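Fold it.
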Amino acid sequence: MEGEAFPMEVRGVGVFALSNAPSAPVLARGCARLSRALGGLPLRCLCQPVGSPRRLAGEDALRCAQFHALLEDPQANLLVAARGGFGVTRLLEQLDFPRLEASGKALCGYSDVSALLVAAWSRGCRRLLHGPMVCSTWALEDSPALAAETHSFLQVLRGEWTFPPPGFPLKTLRPGIAQGPLIPVNLTMLISLLGTPFQPELQGAILLLEDVHEPAHAIERMLVQLRSAGILKRLAGLVLGQFSQGEDAHFLPEIFQEAAQWIPGPVLSQYPLGHQHPSLACPVGAQVTLFAQ
């Protein structure tokens, strides 16, 4: 894997919640499992297990303050989201991205948290990992899927990550070869950043998209919006991950095949990343070669 973000030596872990409040028992179980996966490293959890009336993990100011406190923790150099849901975009204007960049800490999460990852990437932050969260991954029962996710997570941290992942055959929707930074992000969250100061510059990028609970027509609408905004024609390539638990999913192959014609470079689908398990970890901004035949 090219780039200076990984490998890294993890000294300690900080757990944050910028979205919905986690369940206390699930949070405790996930934290214990994450610590074991990293060889028993110390773990500091700064998040509210009891939500506000809107189920957020505390008021906006509190969630920001807890995240910033972890940036000042000299031991926790890997920050992992407790869970996703809703709430990250409320905080982007309040978060201290220069402090995050200067800290050199790694940031891990997905779903709602992917908005934070791509916003941080657009502000020059590195060591960004689209990967497992405490409650939605590490709290799961042992399974082959969890083992695969743990393995890919550790591979990224060790700088041993490869693209595409072996053992997961992908489907070619548009053949070709492209190189560029790989940007994994939830489709809905990417749309939420359009027209804001946190919209990432995707010229020459390879975009990796996923989503959950979105009906086929909504996914099509968002892809059309990316086309109309001029984003798709600037991409080097496109990779489609998991689009799960949405209505009319039988229309998705046709929608994706049509969208592939809007991309100037190669397009692949069926990448193991999203809200199903296994969902493999992926570094944000890693320089990759996309080969589709």
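The chain has nine helices and twelve strands.
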